[in-house]
Amino acid sequence: MPDVGFADLVLLYRNIAFDGFGGGTVHVADDDVTATIRKVETDEATYDLTQISLVESGSFDVGDDLRVNVGQPCSSLGVLAADFDALFRMPGAAFAEPQDSYVIDPGYARNDEPMPDILGRYSGLSTPCARRPVMSI
Question: Most exposed: 39, 48, 49, 70, by fewest CB within 10 Å?
Fold first, then answer.
């Protein structure tokens, strides 16, 4: 099993200038970003989970900007949404907030503080049945 988690994706997502067309440019800000990109590039199973790939393979260093393709990660890792409207339209979103998510605009990962107002309102509505006491008949 690949050694990658949603936190690794968030690290990359926060360093990508998304182009709106399934890709963007990742800034190799530090050694952690370098290691994560190399992990994704060198292991097919990790790519299958993350759906991130370099447009052109080759050597790179901290400080470089690299073109990347970015797709929806495996659902077992989490979800990537362009904005909150897209997040709320995801399958199952009417019933529960995704376990792990990253929203490109405004650059929000689940559990970031402060929580955007729109997400607070959504969280209050998304699981009303789970909060209601069960009535016996």
Answer: 48
Instruction: Give the per-residue pLDDT at 130.
Output: 40
Q: Are 54 and 68 in contact (CB under 8 A)?
A: yes
pLDDT in tens, 52-77: 999 999 999 999 999 999 999 998 89
